[in-house]
TrEMBL record:
<keyword id="KW-0472">Membrane</keyword>
<keyword id="KW-1133">Transmembrane helix</keyword>
<feature type="transmembrane region" description="Helical">
    <location>
        <begin position="273"/>
        <end position="294"/>
    </location>
</feature>
<dbReference type="GO" id="GO:0019706">
    <property type="term" value="F:protein-cysteine S-palmitoyltransferase activity"/>
</dbReference>
<feature type="transmembrane region" description="Helical">
    <location>
        <begin position="182"/>
        <end position="201"/>
    </location>
</feature>
<feature type="domain" description="Palmitoyltransferase DHHC">
    <location>
        <begin position="137"/>
        <end position="309"/>
    </location>
</feature>
<keyword id="KW-0812">Transmembrane</keyword>
<dbReference type="GO" id="GO:0016020">
    <property type="term" value="C:membrane"/>
</dbReference>
<dbReference type="Pfam" id="PF01529">
    <property type="entry name" value="DHHC"/>
</dbReference>
<dbReference type="InterPro" id="IPR001594">
    <property type="entry name" value="Palmitoyltrfase_DHHC"/>
</dbReference>
<comment type="similarity">
    <text>Belongs to the DHHC palmitoyltransferase family.</text>
</comment>
<dbReference type="InterPro" id="IPR039859">
    <property type="entry name" value="PFA4/ZDH16/20/ERF2-like"/>
</dbReference>
<feature type="transmembrane region" description="Helical">
    <location>
        <begin position="62"/>
        <end position="84"/>
    </location>
</feature>
<dbReference type="GO" id="GO:0005794">
    <property type="term" value="C:Golgi apparatus"/>
</dbReference>
<keyword id="KW-0012">Acyltransferase</keyword>
<protein>
    <recommendedName>
        <fullName>Palmitoyltransferase</fullName>
        <ecNumber>2.3.1.225</ecNumber>
    </recommendedName>
</protein>
<feature type="transmembrane region" description="Helical">
    <location>
        <begin position="96"/>
        <end position="117"/>
    </location>
</feature>
Amino acid sequence: MARITWRGHSIQELLSILRLRWSYMKHCWHSLTFNAHMNSSYASDVCLTPIFWFVDNYTHCLGPFFVVGVAALTTSVVSIAYWIGLPFWWAKSQLMTYFLLVVGNWLLLNVVFHYIMAVITPAGHPPEGVSLVEAVSMCGKCIAPKPPRTHHCSICNRCVLKMDHHCPWLNNCVGYGNHRYFFLYMTYTTLGCLFLILFGLEIGHKYLWLEHGENWTEIEPLEGQPVKFNLSGHIIPVTHPHEYDEFMLPPAVHNLPTPIVDTDAASPGRRRALWFMAFTNVAVVLALGSLSIWHAKLITRGETSVEAHINEAERKRHLQQQRIYINPYNFGTKKNWKLFLGLVRGRSFWRTVLLPSWHKPEGTGLSFHTVNDAPFEDEWP
């Protein structure tokens, strides 16, 4: 029996040589990249370093374009709602139209107000050149004292009081000074898109489904001839128009009403605008709706996005030590929401939340009460 060889080596010997060379290359790679702190997290950070560099250096340049994009998108959605939705509901019910105008413009007022305020209101920064008695650590990048709940923003290149995150859609950091504006903007935008979806379903069904289905175009002409059935059930072709009637009566004449077709409503431009509205509103509800729910959970727990990761790591560390970690800024659901929305010092919910309000957050952002030193209920804050 013939033995297969290559350059005097058998198949088994070749496989053994390949395994040895692969093992040698792995050892070389590990020796060149050896690091006692190497793990999957560190490796992923190294791979993502170019992306982090691009975000840190160019996000502030793209921020103004994001702001203009939000303004243009909001304007286009509102314009289409007035162009198509207002005449539709006015013809359907004037009383309902008044109701929709009041609710819709109330939502629009809150969306515009809170977005503008979130963009122009600074998140808050520690004062420079002064001694901060509230400082709890030093920033390794600013080389300056850091008050509690303060974190460094690599995009703004400075520390931010009670930082949550940097939002490119605002071209601004979200923190102590504008967190409430940011959250209410997301909430009212989600409610506004749900409002347009709910009261636009009938419009979409009429213009995108019914009229689009009726305005079909015959591509090929129909071919064939009329037929009739005799008493035995056989099909007999009709060659004379009066063969439909055995008594040679003249054909019947029907005076049917001519349907009125709204050519403007059935125009391709209007249908494209409605499809644009549908995709935009659904996408915004999914994106901002989920983000609003996430931030609502954080507010309920009395923490920011940055603190959520820190607290999670602390909970795991304390759990390994068989201890329980307690967030020092979690005063309970009710009080957390009152502090976040500013429902203190006699402010009411309808005036502070349901209507635009310029009130600032309590305190200076340099120090915060904790569960260990919180004042009594009648002295709060």
